[in-house]
What we know:
Strand content of chain B: under 5%
Shape of chain B: globular
Helix content of chain A: 25-40%
Radius of gyration of chain B: 20 Å
Largest sheet of chain B: none
CATH architecture of chain B: Orthogonal Bundle
Number of strands of chain A: 11
Distance between the termini of chain A: 31 Å
Number of domains of chain B: 1
CATH class of chain A: Alpha Beta
Structural class of chain B: mainly alpha
Largest sheet of chain A: 6 strands, mixed
Number of strands of chain B: 0
CATH class of chain B: Mainly Alpha
CATH architecture of chain A: 3-Layer(aba) Sandwich
CATH superfamily of chain B: MetI-like
Distance between the termini of chain B: 40 Å
Radius of gyration of chain A: 17 Å
Order of helices and strands of chain A: EEEHEEEHEHHHEHEHEE
Oligomer: heterodimer
Largest interface: A-B, 33 and 22 residues
Strand order of the largest sheet of chain A: 7-8-9-3-10-11
CATH topology of chain B: MetI-like fold
Helix content of chain B: over 70%
Number of domains of chain A: 1
Amino acid sequence: MTLIDVDVKLALGQFRLDVQFASNGRSIALFGPSGSGKTSLANAIAGLATPKSGQISINGTRLFDKAAGINLTPQQRGIGYVFQDNRLFPHMTIRANLVYGQTWAARSQQGPSFDDIVALLNIGHLLQRTPATLSGGESQRVAIGRALLMNPRILMLDEPLASLDQQRKAEIIHYLLKIRKASLDASLAPMITISHALDEVNRVADEVVMMADGSVTDVVKTPIKA
Amino acid sequence: MNWLFDLSPDDCDALWLTLKIATLATCATLPVAVAVAYVLARKRFWGHAFVNGLVHLPLVLPPVVTGYLLLLGFGRQGIIGHYLDQCCSIVLSFRWTGAALAAGIMAFPLMVRAIRLSIEHVDQRLEGAAATLGAPPWSILMTITLPLALPGIVAGAILGFAKALGEFGATITFVSNIPGQSRTIAASIYSHTQVPGGDEAALRLSMIAIGISMLALLMSEWLARRMHKTRSGMSI
């Protein structure tokens, strides 16, 4: 079965997004320079932006199909979206942030356990703190944990390393590789990583969707040569 | 200081009555103010500007007009007042509950303004994040939007309470100035100034009114700061 199958047209002011691709990888990257439409595409997949036309399917589930009148709400889509600015809820503790998705998503019942995710991401010592007191790398790990705990159909990370310094980058890549490993043996959801950095893409993805100027130019296997 | 609290029994009644009226007015108005503020902040619909104008009308109308309209609507012979009296034996005119209605309506625009501003400041991207995590719209409102707007809601409530404490024009028009029933601090001060030798009592009540209002404003400021601190502090 195809993991992800996308064919959408989306207009945002002057910007036009027109992408078609399908991929079977367990760890896909959307790769392209900033302004190529990666985040717009991610928002369309998560249901935060509505395309003009086309369809989006994940693991055979149709999330959006203009012709058939299907447009699942973000709540129904089950996309574990880790935002670039991580968007932790500032008025809640880290523990409350982590279990937020678990509270609502029925599918989280069959998902990974709280303790497993806390151990995987090494965030046990942060549980009683608030987001404002966390470093960039810690916030990123909590945001990833929150998304994984809802047991998503797919984990979607938007530039997970862009705002971090070299040391933190290495740290987060270490965790992404752990998730990728769990994803390959199917104990965690498959992942889509959005990135503009070639070295990151080569390390975390097995298949890369190349984007430029709002469209897909190629879908290739890693490693990609510069 | 003793001079300040040397109140006549009537003035004591007025003080407690005013606190009772302002409390009821604030509690009853707050949920409506939150709902209206949310709709004005987040929804775009035909007639948005009209609703916004209507909400703010009591702020700019002569209070006596608001009081007169209340009398027309909620007086015993009024359209709504007559019905309330018939069906549930609820009479508002010339009662303390009517004074609470008048105070609530006069406080309403101030509450809506403060709450609307704070809802507009809530980052909608956080609501989007909550939606991707599966929270239904109603839960997003209760767990994200309103808690983040809480400082503004509290500030609005206190501002409304302070306004309700001092309401005079609409109250005296709608429920008159009956000792023990509708004679609030403001109405008492007015009554004292109308009789010879009432100056001292008027001044005393005025000082108390200033004290309570100032206290309310300081409390609103303190709460807002505290909430801000909690949010950026180490723990909840």
